[in-house]
Amino acid sequence: MLKSFTALFGAVFFLATPLRADDGGVLVLGGTGQLGSEIVKDLVEAGEDVTVFVRPTSKRERLAGLIIAYKVGDILSDADMERVFTSATYRAVIDASGQAFGGDQNYYEKSQRVISKWALAGNVGHIILHGATGAGDSAHMMVMENVPEFQRISIASKSVAEDVLKASGVPYTVIRHMTLLPLENKESGNARLTTSQMAIGAMTRDGLARLTMECLDNSACINMTFHAVDDDVELTGRYTGMWKRYRTVIKPYVFEAREAGGRLE
Ligand SMILES: NC(=O)c1ccc[n+]([C@@H]2O[C@H](COP(=O)([O-])OP(=O)(O)OC[C@H]3O[C@@H](n4cnc5c(N)ncnc54)[C@H](OP(=O)(O)O)[C@@H]3O)[C@@H](O)[C@H]2O)c1
Questions:
Q1: Range of the structural domain that residue 27 is part of
Q2: 242 alpha carbon to ligand 1 midpoint, in Å?
Q3: Ligand 1 centre from 34 Cα, in Å?
Q4: pTM
Q5: How many structural domains are present in the chain?
Q6: pLDDT under 50 in the chain at which residues?
Q7: Separation of 59 CA from ligand 1 center, angstroms?
């Protein structure tokens, strides 16, 4: 469900100017995925004209029954991305795609190079990229040597992807997150975006979809990098040990700041 704009940034800021153009739908990359499918559902509920880019092998079950258009190809294919962005006009692109299991370790940077190049050529008005905490200028908070190698490589690739997008000339929003909870976990209602690089914790995919929607056509999100966190979400199963693990991969000063001042903004 879409909720009020005020929940988006909590008390941090808010005076939005609508950016919405009169035409052009929304293209979702990774729309068959766990996060992407939640975003697609919210877009459809909001009455958007939605196109989902899928691979020939993508399972579409999560999107069953939704009135959406599909384009088929591979995000890493320059020719496929050219075709997608030159055959239709999109006012916004949401990139919720993720490196396939066993797929190219440099997926994020490689994909963003083709996405942002062809999005610029196609006059896309806004790309919202889902990223990872620890990427870009938030790297300082991580004890990288304790992060498992596959995650370290993925975070490094997401850093490059952020840089590629920011340099592309396409208006952007980067939404970084740390731990994504399983689809069955639902947000507390207090999920928020913050410009603090030190906000840490878990997010649900439904909460992330809501916050993504609230950044769409929102001038307050343009050329901004946010961290998404849901301080009040319930942790279940193996995620109950999440904070213990954070102690090994996140610098002590992040915890000190939390303990001294309550939750970090
Ligand atoms: N899981 C976490 O804890 C966590 C933490 C921080 C950030 N993130 C980030 O959040 C985002 C969403 O994660 P998720 O777990 O919800 O994703 P997911 O379920 O793994 O979905 C990934 C999506 O990307 C698509 N995809 C992958 N390679 C593609 C390609 N070459 N061409 C076209 N589509 C391709 C997949 O298509 P198919 O259906 O064909 O496979 C799928 O729709 C990712 O960027 C992830 O890195 C996740």
A1: 6-12+22-261
A2: 21
A3: 7
A4: 0.92
A5: 1
A6: 1-7, 10-22, 264-265
A7: 13
Q: What is the pLDDT of residue 262?
A: 53
Instruction: Give dist(CA 79, CA 185) in Å, integer.
Output: 38
Task: Tell me the CATH number at 185.
Answer: 3.40.50.720
163 burial level (CB within 10 Å; 0-12, 13-18, 19+): middle
* Torsion angles phi and psi, residue 209, rounded to 5: -65, -45
Q: Which of 40, 55, 72 has the most ligand 1 atoms within 8 A of CB, as the residue to mutate?
A: 55
Q: Residues near ligand 1 with C-beta < 6 Å?
A: 30, 32-36, 55, 57-59, 74-76, 96-98, 100, 130, 132, 177, 179-180, 205
In a domain, 1, yes or no: no
Segment holding 225, helix H or strand E: strand 224-229
Q: In angstroms, rounded to a whole number, what is the distance separating the alpha carbons of residues 18 and 76?
A: 32
